[in-house]
Amino acid sequence: MSTADGTIIGTTQISGSAPANRAFNVVLLGDGFQTGQQGAFNTACTAFVTALLGTAPFSDLASAINVFRVHVSSTDTGADDPVSGGGTGASARTYFDASFGGNGIRRLLICNTSTVLSVAAAQVPQFTLAILVVNSTIYGGSGGSVGTFSLASGASEIGIHEAGHTAFGLADEYPYYAGGAETGHDHHPASEPGEPNVTINTNRATLKWGWAVAASTALPTMANPNCAAVDSRASTVPNGTVGTFEGAHYYHCGAYRPEYDCKMRNLSVPFCRICAQVIINRIGPLTTLTARARTPISVVARYPEHLDVFTAGSDGRTVTDWWDASTGWSGWFQISGGIASPGGPGSPITAVSRYARHLDLFTVGTDNRIYSAWWDASGGWSSWFVLAGGLIARPGSTVNVVSRLSGHLDVFTTAADGRIMSCWWDAAGGWSTWFHVSGGIAAAGATVTAIARYPFHLDLFTVGTDNRIWSCWWDERSGWSSWFRIGSQLARSDSTVNVVARHRDQLDLFTVASDQKIVSTWWNALGGWGSWFQVSGGLASPGSQVTAVSRYSNQLDLFTVGTDNRIYSTWWHDPGGWAGWFNVSGGIGAPGSTVTAISRITEHLDVFAVGSDSKAYSTWWDGRTGWAGWFQLGVS
Amino acid sequence: MPQEPGPDTNTGAMRLIFEYEGDAVRLISQQPVDMALTGAETPLESRNGHFAVIRDTAEREIARVPVSALQSTLEVFPETAGEPILRITPDTPRGAFTVIVPAATAAASVALLSVSTPAPEREVEPGLPPAPIEPTETVLGVFSLEPQGDSQ
């Protein structure tokens, strides 16, 4: 029995319309179907599609899922059913060598997986998941790189469970290896499983699905009272409760699953919240993100060949996409279930990288408290946690963060009553409490901006309640100064003061005046503060900010969304002074949106904006090639 | 927003198909494929599991992609709802699996690794990540890759 026992007839797409190179492509292949039996294969495939797309979260991701069926005619009908596996002894010459009775177990339906994968790759090169449908009413199936199932009632559930392993890297959540009567599976080894849906950890602060656990849920949520056996008690908490339930990953004790039940534990139940999120974060990146239009995109370069980009979706979900020179863009995925506050432009996700293997994130949550999460190479994403005692911020406030040292963070934001507040984190002492910075009050909608020109000094800027620009500083030797006004320039009350230090004795400030003019001033250690001036006649759209980047000490690049909503840039160079504003590659931004820019290497800029269609876009400038066109941010 | 097709940093992708029997693994197919690569590890990230690691000629790591279908056990499903799913261990595990990897021009080889890390000392206070613990990497096989012509 081999590929000589049949013929490939052809391939038909039966569900989905996503571009094949940007889709989760499922390929169903038939075995043991003769030429005249292809209708039965069609029926089985249709039933599988109905089952798959009727299963959450696939039901919500259907726009990114394609299903194909590969018709193969076999010489004989059915599959082998050897006596050694408790079968009838039937033998069938089929293309993929399907056989019941694997390892002496009749319902273990195996096949030639190499042939299945090779045929799937030839017929649908972009396939993600291959499943073999076997023409027999004997119940059977198996998992692995190729899921198999027969035409017996309910067997298509096997294919969906197996997709959990093969396509999404999910672990089995059942608490036994061989039904519960086995030996050697009382206690899970003391090593954290790599899969996202099982753990040995019940620490709420570090639990990998801690973001989904309610504060009122006990951890562990259910503990097995007798590790010599499977805990067969009914759930002690309401259905859908996420916590830690002991008994998972083939062990009675010492390993935990997120919910009482899940399709990775029992075939006939839905995926749990955590498995569903894993599936969403794997298929979701293939779809396009609709961003919250006025919330600025944040970007960090942990090292020159890598970018981490953060924003809020139109539903407020905190999402990220990353680019690496080796793999391109990863696609958008949600961060630990976070939701950023609306209000004004909506709270952005502020990101700081203290070192290459670590990120710290901050935002204002929907309860207007300040939240933080981190990503670390050794543990992945943490849960979101309330920062330093739960300050209530203005809805949609920005959290500004500076890392003066790799083991230190200074955090700034505006409280609900406009007070400018700060706290800090230090590796030696943890989080401080919030304190009011020198009595400062920000205008409604204004942000507070901070910069560290050197590790022992901070400069802060904001728009005060008189709509003028104010500053204060902190120095390790003298502590916090009083706030002082920088000239008499009137600013838009919701304007951000963008500041750049081209070197440690120079500050360049940019903001939007009350009449939408883009204005600037400077400070340097020799001459003190300069006068405010309009930058090359530039105007910003209502609500839009001006963004500044310094690629080197005698160069500044500015970006904004103009009053016609086009995305503009200008630059200053010494010698030469200010250039005129120009439209960047024809870009048009969402009204009131803000452009983000970063220079990860000297002769390169990466620019990010939300377009007029509320999609996230990027372009770049390179010293060798000039400006590229805009492209929609997603997966490469 | 006028658009161009995408960044010129798009590397393309390559499908690798491996066969295994017992401890022996062999690469039986490599095929360039136009598809988005999702699920690659965030660079510098380390966690337990099986991975395909793309390396250049100097054996520097270019990319790391999880492999979830390299199995030494088989899953047996119950005919009756509510009965347990079983795992069995065949005497000689055999099968095949596929993995999509970035098709970087510099890619010279792919290594299949099994990564395991001892239980970490986890933090108690938020804001401090767990102390890094060096994982143990077991090489299951290293395979040469055919040169890719027109990508990055």
UniProtKB/TrEMBL annotation, chain A:
CDD domains: PLL_lectin (cd22954). Signal peptide: none annotated. It comes from the Bacteria. Residues 297-634 form the PLL-like beta propeller domain. This is PLL-like beta propeller domain-containing protein. It comes from Paeniglutamicibacter terrestris.
Automatic annotation (TrEMBL), chain B:
This is Uncharacterized protein.
